[in-house]
Design goal:
The complex is a heterodimer.
Chain A (H helix, E strand, L loop, with lengths): L12 H11 L2 E2 L2 E5 H4 L2 E7 L2 E6 L8 H14 L5 E5 L12 H9 L2 E2 L26 E5 L7 E6 L5 E5 L3
Parallel strand pairs in A: 4-5, 6-9
Antiparallel strand pairs in A: 1-2, 3-4, 7-8, 8-9
Chain B lengths: L5 H4 L5 H8 L8 H22 L8 H27 L5 H6 L10 H4 L9 H22 L5 H29 L3 H14 L11 H7 L11 H14 L23 H14 L6
Helix pairs in contact in B: 2-4, 3-4, 3-10, 4-8, 7-8, 7-9, 7-11
The chains are: A alpha/beta, B mainly alpha.
């Protein structure tokens, strides 16, 4: 089932401020993407004066999660707010939660973005993975695992450049 | 025999601290659920540790990276499971990983064995990955529907990652099984060495069997047919045959381990024990 949950920016001014501060935190391993782009930001609330930020990890073993936690606390501290980060595992993160803006920024950064999954959970078979450097579809996989678990290593047969591809999850 | 795990319960209540460290407020599991999670967490932890040995040693650079990343996924599963188990006993994931002795670990032997003959046999490693990822896939798919919300959440996440691990192991099994005479010969030898340890995956597990009726856990025996059929199908496609060797007795869930296990956890624990409480 497609889990494209609506997680809108809260309307109340105080909560919106917390949301915006958390939403702008960058993934240390993909420093063009914010946690909002990745669809990791699941919600914010206030527990008294403490801002509670809920995030969902992309991969179980992703080492970036501890850095993200610290960066969110720092971002909220800049607003003069104490923050607590809660990790929510369910429902499990999917690349379908990545925003269109996030996909565009990934491609600009030289990483082929994940394709959308169909409603039955299967990835539509495309003609190929497009080279983020030259746009050619004449590409091939070198390794199913790239520099991180979320990426595979590909090479463009047209321009010769190797590139990372964000895998569908 | 003394149940070494009962020693874990004789601690002050640090449960809140453990939950806070994980950042996730969650109700602590009962002792039996914690024991079940501990066994699963130890399986993932030991295989992650073995896969880490390949970093800088694999036959090609891409495999250093692939096996390292697969190990990292497994370490993530282990961390979630051990954090959950430990919250029942006021222990953190680090307490459990680094400050338990051999008989307190509950992993099956398959996951702790060295990486085949010589300690770095690629054929053995790939075949173990094939067995492990098909087993984990079947287990976590079922466990994703557990009546225990935390086990269900951890499993639903893991099942997606393990699917990629199974694909990686399957592709390599086909390539090596159908490759050269030499690669086929070495896969056959590794399979003969590995196969005796597959049976233990389906041996009774006291915690799992106690919880299976309530829909919390998966009885190991109930996975046998599905997992063996899945492994057999890949082996057949790869031109390899299930070897005619009997299953060995393991006893990992009872705290009995192989001769090599002490060296494995020695390496894993040395740094944490030399510098207790150290952080990066």
């Amino acid at each position: 089932m497609l889990e494209r949950e609506a997680r809108p920016r809260p309307a109340a001014a105080e909560l919106a401020e917390v949301w915006d501060a958390a939403a702008g935190v960058l993934d240390p391993e993909l420093p063009v993407l914010t946690i909002a782009d990745l669809g990791m930001l699941r919600g914010v609330e206030l527990d008294g004066d403490v801002a509670v930020v809920r995030i969902t990890p992309t991969y179980s073993g992703c080492p970036a999660i501890d850095a993200l936690r610290a960066d969110i606390v720092t971002a909220l501290a800049a607003l003069g707010r104490e923050a607590r980060v809660e990790v929510v595992l369910s429902p499990a993160w999917t690349t379908d939660w990545m925003s269109d803006e996030g996909r565009r920024k990934l491609e600009e950064f030289g990483i082929a973005p994940p394709r959308p999954r169909g409603t039955d959970g299967h990835v539509a078979l495309g003609l190929g993975i497009r080279c983020p450097q030259c746009g050619s579809l004449h590409t091939r996989e070198l390794s199913r695992y790239g520099s991180t678990s979320c990426k595979a290593l590909w090479q463009c047969q047209a321009c010769g450049e190797p590139f990372d591809r964000f895998k569908e999850l | 025999m003394i149940d070494r795990l009962t020693l874990l319960q004789k601690t002050d209540a640090k449960t809140d601290a453990a939950a806070e460290a994980s950042g996730t407020p969650m109700p602590a599991p009962s002792d039996v659920v914690a024991r079940y999670a501990l066994g699963l967490g130890d399986d993932a932890l030991m295989l992650a540790q073995r896969l880490g040995e390949w970093i800088s040693n694999a036959p090609e650079l891409e495999e250093d990276v692939a096996l390292g990343n697969i190990g990292l996924d497994l370490l993530g599963h282990a961390r979630a499971l051990l954090t959950y188990a430990g919250s029942a006993w006021g222990k953190t994931e680090d307490d459990l990983a680094y400050f338990r002795d051999e008989p307190e670990f509950r992993n099956r032997w398959l996951f702790e064995l060295p990486n085949g003959a010589g300690g770095l046999d690629f054929a053995f490693t790939i075949l173990r990955q094939l067995v492990a990822s098909l087993y984990f896939g079947a287990l976590y798919r079922r466990l994703a529907a557990s009546s225990d919300a935390q086990l269900a959440a951890i499993s639903a996440k893991a099942v997606k990652e393990v699917a990629y691990h199974a694909e990686h192991a399957t592709l390599w099994t086909l390539r090596l099984g159908l490759g050269t005479d030499e690669s086929h010969r070495r896969m056959t030898r590794a399979l003969t060495d590995l196969w005796p340890f597959v049976g233990e995956l389906f041996d009774p597990d006291a915690a799992a069997d106690a919880l299976a009726a309530d829909g919390v856990a998966v009885a190991p025996e109930s996975l046998r047919d599905e997992v063996l059929a899945a492994i057999g199908a890949v082996l057949e496609d790869a031109g390899l045959a299930v070897p005619d060797v009997p299953f060995a007795q393991g006893g990992g869930r009872l705290g009995r381990h192989s001769e090599q296990f002490g060296r494995l956890i020695g390496e894993m624990q040395a740094l944490a024990r030399a510098h207790p409480g150290a952080t990066w």
